[in-house]
Amino acid sequence: QVRLVESGGGLVQAGGSLRLSCSISGPTSSTYAMGWFRQVPGKEREFVGFIRWRGGDTDYADSVKGRFTISRDADKDAMYLQLGSLKPEDTAVYYCAASEAYSAGNFVYTKSYGYTYWGQGTQVTVSS
Questions:
Q1: Going by C-beta distance under 8 Å and a sequence separation of 6 or more, which residues neighbour residue 36?
Q2: Is the separation of the CB atoms in 127 and 11 below 8 Å?
Q3: Mind listing the pLDDT tens digit for each residue in 1-26?
Q4: What's the CA gap between 84 and 82, in Å, rounded?
Q5: Which residues face 47 on adjacent strands?
Q6: Per-residue model confidence as pLDDT tens digits over 46-72
Q7: Distance between CA atoms of 46 and 24, rounded to whole angstroms?
C-alpha cells in the first residue's frame, strides 16, 4: 500500500512562489508516474502536471506551463511541485497522486482515473 503525504502549502502573495512536497511511503516498484492535481470547492479536480517516475519526463496543464515545475528524488521517495509567478486563480487544494498504470502516451496521466493512490491535499492560497 502506497501512502502519500503533501506538505508546503500556505498563503502567498500574487507573483510569489512556493514549493510543495509529496512524500511517498510503501512499495514504489509498480509506480509509473506521479501527478499533481488541484481542486477548488464546487469544481472538479484539475490536472496540474505529472512526472514519469523512472524516466523523469514531465508534462503540464497549459494553465501552469512555464510557471510550475515538477521534480522528483527517487532516492528519497519524494516529489516536488515548484510553483512560481503565482496568481489568485492558482488558489486550491493541491493533491499528489501515484499511478500504477503504464502508458506510453501522456493522456491517462492527465486524468484522475489514471491514478491509484492520493494524498490528503495541501491548501495553497494566493492573495491579490
A1: 20, 22, 48, 49, 50, 68, 70, 79, 81, 94, 95, 96, 97
A2: yes
A3: 899 999 999 999 999 999 999 999 98
A4: 6
A5: 37
A6: 999 999 998 899 999 999 999 999 999
A7: 21
